[in-house]
Amino acid sequence: KDGEYRPIIRANKEKKELLVYDPHTMKPVLMSYDEFTKDFSGKSLVLKHRVFTEKIKFGFGWFLKEILNYKKIIFEVLLASFVIQLFGLVTPLFTQVILDKVLVHHSISTLDVLAIAFLVVTIFDFLLNYMRNYVFVHTTSKIDAKLGAKLYHHLMALPFGYFVVRQVGNIIARVRELDQIRSFIANKSVTVLLDVLFSFVFLAVMFLYSVKLTFMVMGFVFVIALIYLFATPKFRERLNEKFNMGAEQNSFLVESVTGVETVKSLALEGAMQKRWEDKLADYVSASFKLSNFGFLLGGLSGMLQKLMTISILYFGVLMVIKGDLTVGQLIAFQMFANQFSGPVLRLVNLWNEFQQTLLSVDRLGDILNTPTEQRNEKAITLAQIRGDIAFNKVNFAYKPGAAMVLKDLSFSIQAGMSVGIIGRSGSGKSTVTKIIQRLYMPTEGVVFVDGVDIRHFDPKWFRTKIGVVLQENYLFKGTIKENIAMARPNASMDEIIRVARISGADTFISEFPEGYDTEVGERGSTLSGGQRQRVAIARALLVDPRILIFDEATSALDYESEKIINANLEKIKRGRTTIIIAHRLSTVKDCDVIIAMDKGQIVEAGTHEELMAKKGYYHHLYTQQSI
């Protein structure tokens, strides 16, 4: 009624409450329906936009859409396929003329003309085939490259939770299904399909020779196709079994190589070998069943093809004896029958590969049809953030129906504050920081940064404003300089050295012969745990984050390294909101606020002195560590 608008962020119908943004205090305010309606003028402005982008679900429809982007090329390929099929009529007709005319009348001049014409047609047929295949392969290569780029981009854009509930080996196995799709396309499967469509030209010509023999050929082809059709469910079952066994084997291999230090330290080589051989046996068994079934289908198909050839010759010779066909017509018909049945049977033989490709498309669909993090086309980005953080009645569970890891969590952190979060293992400390980063989204409740619901932020932009140092940090293969500048590749050397000095990394880097150009190896294997940690801290500081999170960041450091970090901690925290998660309470002793958590809830909050005076949960943990 005062003429100003109040944005409604969220409405709770059960509790009859509204979360309203107050433009004066620039903070959200919780109001009851009665409080709101008392000052409500009755006028409202409803803003809507399309949240989800329209897209074709990944499947063969995606390939069809991509292929239709090349209409001109498709027309050229279709035209070339039609002309190639017409050229296919030449050889049988030439053979018929030679047998029935040239051979009978001993016409050498006619033979010379036919030979020259046949040579010209053969050359044109070769050139046209080459051009068609070149254009087709060039086009499919573009589609392949686009799919590969789309797959990796989508995989990296998936929410963190997607990777938490899946094994690394299983994800890699799904990505590798791209090879099967690539192989199917590259094997001219589409050109075989085109040849099948145009092979009906031969069928029409065959009817002109003999209706009886033509129906017989169609019968054999139909029976072969029927066998493959009825075998499809069993074949797909065998394919699925092989994939699942392969994915398990792949996951176990990744797990073994990643944890090789633990395997060796516990002398588990023998036990791991036994498990590997068991999984290998399952995979080989599934592969054998699939191959054996494929050989059975192929054998039946080959046998029926031979029976078809014998049947054509047997009944054809009877017709020649009766005078219904000439010898040249019989041989020509036999060649036409092969021209017709060849593409059809090649397509039938491709059926097994097609089924495998269908499953590959389904498996890739598990990745490409999973919604990415950012589905909002109008996500918010700000010029800069201050670092105010507020949790409002946040509940979180890893999946629907599971126990809540965080329960009714509410707290606020002012920009520039340093906050320590402590608690026993499993109390939800790290989950809080993952929610702040938008790696997880609250099951219930809202998290605000600078008064804005973090769900409205562009996640990629938002994370550039947050620096994170974990207990175990991943260093990529490359130099120390490249790893520090990972998020800012264009950073100057002076900036890199500055953050390395703050983190204490410059001390050991300067001792290396190659300095900042020293290779760290895969996962930073050439550096010690403490050295990796200091490089990770420097990497986090280089982006000058407004919010800095230390998740057990100093727990892996030796005394000397920790002393260097603690000495520079005030400089590190200056001008930014800092959240420090630690089991070692001396690390958070000097924080502005310490939050003590247990079983997903806040049990205490205050300064070190205040919490010690309470003689509660924090006092108990601190006393235990001091003993």
Provide structural commentary.
The protein has 627 residues and is of the alpha/beta class. The chain folds into three domains: 48 residues; 309 residues, Up-down Bundle (ABC transporter transmembrane region fold); 238 residues, Rossmann fold, CATH 3.40.50.300. 59% of the residues lie in helices and 12% in strands. The strands form three sheets. A six-stranded mixed sheet has the order 9-10-11-6-12-13, sandwiched between helices. A four-stranded antiparallel sheet has the order 5-4-7-8, covered by helices on one side. It has a three-stranded antiparallel sheet with strand order 1-2-3. A hairpin with a 4-residue loop joins strand 2 and strand 3. Helix 3 crosses helix 9, helix 4 runs antiparallel to helix 14 and helix 7 packs antiparallel against helix 11. The longest helix is centred in the middle third of the chain and has 54 residues. The protein is elongated, with a radius of gyration of 36 Å. The two termini are 62 Å apart.
The tally of domains stands at 3
Q: Approximately what portion of the residues adopt beta-strand conformation?
A: 5-15%
CATH architecture of the largest domain: Up-down Bundle
CATH class category of the largest domain: Mainly Alpha
Per the CATH scheme, the topology name of the largest domain is: ABC transporter transmembrane region fold
pLDDT averaged residue by residue: 79
Helical content (DSSP H or I, runs of 4+)? 55-70%
Structural class: alpha/beta
Order of neighbouring strands in the sheet with most strands: 9-10-11-6-12-13
Largest beta-sheet characterization: 6 strands, mixed
CATH superfamily of the largest domain: ABC transporter type 1, transmembrane domain
